[in-house]
Amino acid sequence: MKPTDAARARQAEKPARRRAERARRNASAPFFFGKQAIAFAAVCVVLLVLDLFLYIGIAIYENTQAFGYGSPKSVTRAVGEALVQESDGAYALPADEADWMDYEQCWGMLLSEQGDVLWSRNAPDAVLHPYELSEVAVFSRSGYLNDFPCFVWKRDDGLLVTGFPKDSYAMSVVSYLPQESLGHMPLYALLIFVIDAAVLYLVYMVSKRRVAKSIAPMIEALDELARGKPVHVQLKGSLRDVGESINAASAVMRRKDEARRRWVSGVSHDVRTPLAISMGHAERIAADEAAGDEARESARIIERQNARIRDLVSDLNIASKLEYDMQPVEARPARIAPLLRSIAADYANTYPEGPFAIEADVGDEARDAEALIDERLMDRALRNLIDNAVRHNESGCTVRLFADAHDGQLALGVADDGKGLDEALIARLNHEAEAIASSAVEEDEPAQGPVPPPHYDEYRAAAAAGALRTGPAASPCGEEPTLAPKDLVGLNEHGLGLSLVARIAAAHGGRVGFSSGPEGGFVATIAIPLRPFDTQRPAVVA
Amino acid sequence: MTDANLKSRRILVVDDEPELRRMVASMLSAEGFTHVTQAGNVKEALEAFRRVKPELALLDVMLPDGDGFTLCQYLRAFDPDAPLPVIFLTAKDETDDRLSGLRSGADDYVTKPFSPQELALRIAAVLRRCYPAEPETVELADCVLDLGNADVLRKDSDEHVSLTVKERALLEALARNAGRIVTTDALCEAVWGDSFGYEQSLMTHVRRVREKIEADPSHPRSLVTAKGIGYKLIAQKGPRA
Q1: Which residues of A touch B97 (CB under 8 A)?
Q2: A418 lies in the same domain as A482
Q3: Which of A122, A470, B27, B138 has the greatest number of CB atoms lying within 10 Å of its CB?
Q4: Per the database record, which ranges form the OmpR/PhoB-type domain (chain B) (predicted)?
C-alpha cells in the first residue's frame, strides 16, 4: 500500500473504529439488561410473597387485639358469661368482672327478649329504656348506641349490651360480598400485582436511564484515563465525589508524567556537558598528528560513540516529551524542501570525501509544498533515518533524501542503496510502526495530543487477528505476545531512532513506512498531510 | 581580513564547568586563537569583560549566579553602537531556549555536546560577520576573485571581468563557506533576502557566474553542484584555509 493510501485509509478507519467500539458496548447491553429484568421479576415475586406473609401476620395480630384478652369483645363475652340470675331473680356480676368493667370504663345492660332492661351496670340514664326490636337491630348492626360504641352478647335469657366511652372505638360496618366476587379475588390480586410490577418497572427504567446518563461522562473519562490521557469531569449529585476522585487520579497521573519527563530532560541535560568535554578531547586527539595512529583511531572511535550517545540522549528526550508532554508538537506551516536540503548539506559536509554520498531529491510538486510540521521533530526524524542508513552501511552508500507531494499527502524520507534488510524484518518494522500510528489514531487531534505507548490490549487483539504472523520473524515474541513495550521488541533493535521516527510521524498525523528500494537498499517514507498551497505568497520568476 | 587578524580577536569563554572551559580554550588555542579568557560565573565574566574587553563571548546559558541570557543583554548594553557578538553554549535543546536566546540578541547558538571543530567554524563565521573584513581575495582554480571590487581576474587570459551586485553576493555567500555545501535556500536568502521562489533565478545566476570564473563552464571546477542540495565553492587559497 502506498503511504498516501495508508494515511487515507487510516483517516477513514478512525470513525469506523469508534463505531465498532460503541457497537461492542451496545451488543453486551441486551445480555446485561436481560439479566437485570430476570432479577427484577424475581424481586417482584419475593415482594409479593413477603406482602402475603405480612398481611396474614397483621391480620392475626389485629385479630388478637380485637378479640383477645382485654378487647371489648372479650369484656362483653366475659360479662355475658359471668352474669348470673340468682334464685331471687336478681342478676349478679362477680367482683372480678365488675372490676374489669370499671377498669375498661364500660357500662352494661341486659335486655330481655321483649326489650326491657333486666340488669344494668354503670349505664347512663339515656340508654336505660325499653327497646323496640327495630332499635336493637339498628344498634347491634351499626355498633353505636347513643354514640357509645357498643357490643352485644347473646344469652339464653336475653341480649347483653356493653357500651364503651364515646370515641374509644371506631366501629366498622361488616359488609357482605357476593360469592362470585370472592371467586374473582385471585384474579384481582394478580391484576394488582401486574400493575404494581409495571409501575415499578417503569420507575426502574427511568431511574436506570438517568443513572446511565449521569455516569456516561464518568465512563468516558475512565476510558481516556486508561489511554493515559488527562481528564477533567464534572459530575453532579451523588457522583460528584467519584468525579473528583477521577480528576484527582488524572492529576496524579499528570504529575507523575511530568516528573518523568523532567527527570529524563534533567538527565539528558546533565549528560551533555561531560559529553561535550569528552567529544572535545577525542576530536583533538583524533586530529593531533603527533599522536600515534592507534591512539588517533581510538579517539575516532570515541568520537563516533560519543556522537551516538549524543543522539540517543536527544532521542530519549524527544521520546519522553512526545509521550508525557501535554503539547509535545509545536506545528507551524512550513516548507519541507529547505529543511530537507539543509539536513542534506549538513551530512554532505560531514562526509566530503565519502564513503557516503548525500543527495536531495525534491519533486516538483513538493518544491513549494507546505505542511504543518514541528521542524525540530521532523529534523530529528530525518536525521535518525540518515543515521540509520549510515550505521548499517559502514562501507558507504548513496543516501538520498526525497520529498514528493501528491493527493494531499507529503511523502518525505530517506532511501539508500546499501545492504538493505530482509523482508521479514521490514514487515516487522512496518507492523510496529503501524501499531504506533494506530495508537495515535484514537486521538482527536493527532498533532496536538500526546502519543500513548502501544497498549497490551491492542497487541493481543493484533495477535488474535494473526496480524503479528505476517512473516517468519513477524511474531517477535512467539505465540504469546509480550507485555514489554513495543519499543523494546522490534524497532528498538534498530535503535530508539526508528521508533522515534514512527512517533514523530504519528504526532504529525501521519505514519512511516519501510520498504526495500527498487534496486536493493532500504527506504523509509514518512507520509503526512499536506497543507493547501498558500497562494498569498508571491511566486517570483527570474 | 586575514586569518591571523581573525584569530587575534579577544574571546571570552564563560562556563561553570572548568573542564569544559579548559577544553574549549585549548581547542581554540590549537585552532590558532591567541587571546582566550575564561570565566566560571557571572561575577568573573563581568570582571574579565572590564579587564580584557572581549570581541566575542561564548556564554553558557546556566551559570551558578545567573543566566547567560541576562548576562548577554548586560554585556551588550555596554556599547549599544557595537554590541558584543555572543554565541550561546547550552545543554538544553528546547525550542523556547533557542527563541529566547536569539531574542536577547545572540549571534549563534551551539548545543552541547558540540564538535570543537564545529564551534571553531561558527566562531570564525560570527567574527567575520561582525567585524567586516577588508576586501577579500579568493584564489580559485581558474581565476582570482576580488570580492571587495566585484572583480574576477581570469588566469587563462589575465583579463578582468566585473561581477554584478547579485553575482558578488552569491560568491560572497559561497566564499564565506568555502569547501562546504551551501543550500539553495541559504543562497537565495543571501542574494534576495528570501528563499521562496528564487530557485530558477539562482540557477541562472550560477550559470552566469560560472561563465565568468570557470575555464570550462560546463565542467565547473570551482563552483560545483551538490545534487539537489545546493552549491559549493572550492577555493585554492582564500578567506578560509
Answers
A1: none
A2: yes
A3: B138
A4: 135-235
State the pLDDT at residue A344.
92
Q: B interface mutation test: which of A322, A330, A349, A374 has the most B CBs within 10 A?
A: A349
Q: How many whole angstroms separate alpha carbon B212 and alpha carbon A43?
A: 102
Residues 125-144 on B with a CB inside 8 Å of A are none
pLDDT tens track for A486-495: 443 345 555 5
Determine the distance in angstroms separating the CA of A312 from the nearest CA of chain B, rounded to an integer.
12
B contacts of A310 (beta carbons < 8 Å) = 113
Say how many CA atoms lie within 13 Å of A71 toward its Cβ. 13
Q: Which of B117, B200, B226 sits opposite A541 (nearest CB)?
A: B200
Cβ–Cβ contact B148 with A under 8 A: no
- DSSP state string for A260-320: HHHHHHHHHHHHHHHHHHHHHHHHHHHH-TTS-HHHHHHHHHHHHHHHHHHHHHHHHHHHH
* Averaged pLDDT of chain B: 82
Q: Domains in chain B, please, with CATH?
A: 3-130 (3.40.50.2300), 137-233 (1.10.10.10)
Whole-number pLDDT of residue A401 = 92
Contacts of B184 in chain A (CB under 8 A): 341
pLDDT band at A368 (very low <50, low <70, confident <90, very high): confident
pLDDT tens, residue by residue, A93-142: 888 888 988 888 899 999 998 889 989 988 898 888 899 989 888 888 88
pLDDT at B97: 56
Quick one: pLDDT at residue A495? 59
Are residues A338 and A277 part of one domain? Answer: no
Confidence label for A479 from pLDDT (cuts 50, 70 and 90): very low
Count of the separate structural domains present in chain A: 3
A62 lies in a domain? no
A312 with A347, same domain: the answer is no
Q: Which residues of B touch A352 (CB under 8 A)?
A: 179-180
Are A418 and A296 in the same domain? no
| Domain that includes residue A101, residue range | 72-163
Say what the pLDDT of residue A450 is.
36
Orientation of helix A72-82 relative to helix A3-67, angle to 10°: 20
Q: Is A105 exposed, middle or buried (0-12, 13-18, 19+ CB in 10 A)?
A: exposed
Q: What's the grid cell of residue A364?
A: 516538483
